[in-house]
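Margin note from the TA: students keep mixing up input and output lines. Inputs are the sequences; the output is the structure of the whole complex. Example:
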Amino acid sequence: MQSASIDTTAVPATGTILPQSGRRRDWKEQFFKILFLLAAIIGVLSLAVIAYFIFQESLPAFAEAGVSGIVTGTEWLPPALYGILPMIVASLASTIGAVAIGVPVALLTAIFIAEVAPKWLANIIRPAVELLAGIPSVVYGFFGLIIIVPMIQEWFNVPAGNTVLAGMLVLAVMILPTVIAVSETSLRAVPKTYKEGSLALGASPMFTIFKLLVPAARSGILTGVILGIARALGETMAIIMVMGNAPAMPGSILEPARTLTANIALEMSYASGVHASALYATGIVLLVFIMMLNGTLLYLNREKAK
Amino acid sequence: MMNKISIKDLNLYYGNGANHALHGINLDIPARQVTALIGPSGCGKSTLLRCLNRMNDLIEGVKIDGLVTLDEQDIYQNVDVASLRIKVGMVFQKANPFPMSIYDNIAYGLRAQGVTDKKTLNEVVERSLRSAALWDEVKDRLKSPAFGLSGGQQQRLCIARTIAMEPDVILMDEPTSALDPIATKKIEDLIQTLKQKYTIVIVTHSMQQARRISDRTAFFLMGDLVEHNNTNILFSTPADDRTRGYVNGDFG
Amino acid sequence: MSYTLTRARKIQDTAAKALIWLGASLTVGFLLWILWYILSNGLAHVNWEFVSSDYTSIGEASGIWPMIVSTIYMVLASIGVAAPIGIMTAIYLTEYAKPGSKLVKVIRFCTESLAGIPSIIFGLFGLTFFVGVLGLGFSVLSGALTLSILILPVIIRTTEEALMAVPQSYREGSYGLGAPKIYTITRLILPSAMPGIVTSIVLSIGRIIGESAPVFLTAGMVARIPESLMDSGRTLTVHLYKLTQELYTIHEWNQAYATATVLIVVVLVINTITKLIASRFNKATY
């Protein structure tokens, strides 16, 4: 065996290959660091500018009609009255209905995918749910308009099927993917040892799911529900297409109504002056609801961290 | 001596037959004694334990042939798995209390069988906690979360939870491996008391523990049951060279 | 005494299981119903002429070519603005900023808040700021700038996840060789995170195509091929909305079905692409 020797002539003396350009390199590093930082600031700036403009533009309406005149007013008759209570009621009613119908279905589907379905079936349903999430809201609106609206008209024998109920049904389907995806993830995050322990005690798989796994995934499921609520509250086009959009206080879920979002979308392109400002005020009210939801989320996450 | 559990020519394969993990195991487990399963990690001792209450059913692609009987009855034929697991309770390597109160942890298994009567539940909770030597430590905080207990207390809670179901057999999968010596001692003492009423099968990584608490010991190596005997005999005069090597600490 | 499964318990179990199957069937059923109804009515009317023709509201031509072009412009412009900003933000957050520093918290809070704002609010803002204050008018550019803020949080979050998934050992190895930070990022970390970044962009494309309310408030509804980014344009979703407001003749119904069909096919294509990237990525890593 040959003794291991290093051919020293092949190794260059130190400092002969690398160029001595430390200062230029520092300059370059600094430049990119600042560039990336500036990019990161744009998101912050956007939020600030959005908040500033929406707030600023809503001031004339609040000044003229008063906060209570807008928030508790029941008549929307621009340019005289700017009451949006009917819209608040419509938004809340359609959202609550959507949650009441959609969340149970979504939760059961999440349980199915995470715990019950054989692997091959779960692998088919998961992409199906993603597809449901990807369908544009105008397509949901279109579907609601041609299927659900006539159905309601016929079943309940009302003059027009464009009603709060139609909005609830369409929104219920639209929140499914959000609630399913988040709930499924949190069900999967429950430690396997819980399930093992429960089955080892002779508890049935169903008892284990409903009494142990679902409660253990509670905060994650709640997060999914809140995201679903936010989606329902913020939805615009599908709602415009199926809910009739009458700016009056709905007497029942079989009457047409206009949500906060619909109010903005329908009138913004032609409104001016205080009327336009009142639509910004509508946006502010919508944002307040969204902020309350986000606050709940923050609280939930803090609870989870504990 | 009556055999509680009897294992005959048991073979187990993981991954739809790809991995032959237990090779023709024959083992009798006498009633009301502590049987220890020992051997280096990966030898199949935990796998065998999980055959006894069919926890291996949960793993996809597991295939089993051979015979396992409990009270002369084949546990893989015409048996309701839930009823089997009530009769054959299990305590896991890491204490796994559920995210609920101490009381609800103990009552969980009964409630799963549809027991709702408050008086019955109260009685069983107290009796089980007493049997697990935990009652005095927790009687004032039954409604507080089980996660507030120390590691050793959590493990005794899991034992109490199992006892609540009034099983015949308790399987223990390295129940003290995550505990400090003091907590371990308490569990070992508890096992000595419990064996008067229950048949106990314990997997342990510690030969000292096997010697301290078990009546019989079975030594496993790479999926084979090398030797099983009265604990004292197995440790003092092992019949097989491999057993001698292991108990002398040559490997493992 | 021993406890075994009571009859009542067994019935409850069966009922619970039936309920779970029912819930899942409802979800899949809704999807199939929507897909079947729209595709069965629309596929017959999607042909080359429909895709390549112009559109006039009085009915001489009833294709969707201008809407396709407008949608493509909208996608390119929005991604062109949002992708560089989003990717650079993610690089700053993962590679430069101290984790947990005040600045990072502020940036995170703001992007999360942006993600939670309903899209109609973006429309409202775009109409005021880009269309009005900046004087860009109803144009593809106004729409694209509005949408770029809307998709920014998606790009930032997904890119961040992709960057964080790059093993720390890569960075250590590169810095250990004395490689400069920017070199490490552009030559090593970004290429490793590329599948994730591409996925985030494809997801954003889906979001842009699907949006409608903030689009017609900022880009208008003119149904002709925009001559430049400063010209108004009507995207496919806005077109479907306009069509549904005037469903009188069978011909108009067919157009609506066909447009909805095209939108669904686009969503299918986008979902398939993300799946393909994900599966190739997984194969490469493991």
